[in-house]
Amino acid sequence: MRILNLSGRLAVDIDGSYAVDVATASDGRFGPDPHSVYDQWDEFVTWAGGDLPISSRVTVDHTALGAPAPRPRQVFAVGLNYREHAEEAGLDLPEIPMVFTKFPSAVTGPGGVIDLPKGSVDFEVELVAVVGREAAGVSTADAWAHIAGLTVGQDLSERELQLAGPAPQQFNMGKSYRGFAPIGPVLVTPDEFADPDDIEISCALNGVEVQKTRTSDMIFSIPKIVEFLSSVATLWPGDVIFTGTPSGTGWSRDPKLLIGPDDELVTVAEGIGQMRHTFRPA
């Protein structure tokens, strides 16, 4: 199943061109708010698995797609989760997931214009998991049962603020400017993938591919990340988890490759789709 935020209304994708408006099709059993469905996830999946009425079909305007999880209570992110990325950063491989957060106000949709703050803004393509069932003390073996689906995201980062201080103290701030957590274009349930632990992700800056990998190369898989996070914090339905970026980030290059005004960033995930953003000075 592929879930859309279509002009602020929850929809189920049919074929990429048409979708079913959930509130209309369910006669109000589920509301139009795309984020509220996560609190009814089990009930919704059962309903959506039946015959959806064609009378509730709407045309998909891809320019009107919003974030499939627009108001998470928590946004977690994992750093150094690919071996080559840790090596390019000159850091040792982590023994446990290296976790930081992005503020929920940074979440935005899969297209449009993002404001560039002063400093050095970098790209980081990532596979993103959205929680569908409350998770506390969940084992690796049970973790996928708590994931509603997968989407693609960018962990955009202003490196100067991120690394400011006598020791890097500002990860959360440098990664949480408005628009710095774009996700989309759809949420795809794990059963849609041949292997949800092996998905190709990539991004291109101004038409030149800058990052590409398969998520099977992650040091910590999504189930391991969920186990670790839920051993400390309760994960709530609709929470968002950025799972780490591969090598090729702009800050690690010589010379550095950073996002500038009018640049275009295209982000792609196999079986999910693509995001397209441009940038302007804040």
Q: How does this model look, in words?
A:
By secondary structure, the protein is α+β, with helices and mostly antiparallel strands. It has 2 domains: 2-64, no CATH class; 75-281, Fumarylacetoacetate hydrolase, domain 2 (Alpha-Beta Complex), CATH 3.90.850.10. It has helices at residues 22-25, 41-48, 83-88, 159-162, 171-174, 222-232, and strands at 2-6, 9-13, 18-21, 57-59, 75-79, 98-101, 107-108, 111-116, 121-122, 125-131, 147-154, 157-158, 181-188, 200-205, 208-214, 240-242, 264-269, 273-281. The strands form 3 sheets. Strands 1, 2, 3, 4, 5, 6, 7, 10, 11, 13 and 16 form an 11-stranded mixed sheet that branches. The radius of gyration is 18 Å and the shape is globular. The mean pLDDT is 96.
Structural class: alpha+beta
Quote the CATH topology of the largest domain. Answer: Fumarylacetoacetate hydrolase, domain 2
Indicate the radius of gyration in whole angstroms. 18 Å
> What best-fitting shape do the alpha-carbon axes yield?
globular
Q: Give the rounded overall mean pLDDT.
A: 96
* Count, helices: 6
The CATH architecture name of the largest domain reads Alpha-Beta Complex
What is the succession of H and E elements? EEEHHEEHEEEEEEEHHEEEHEEE
Number of strands: 18
Relevant CATH superfamily of the largest domain:
Fumarylacetoacetase-like, C-terminal domain
GO molecular function, one term: hydrolase activity
Pfam families: FAA_hydrolase (PF01557)
Protein name: Fumarylacetoacetate hydrolase family protein
Keywords: Hydrolase, Metal-binding
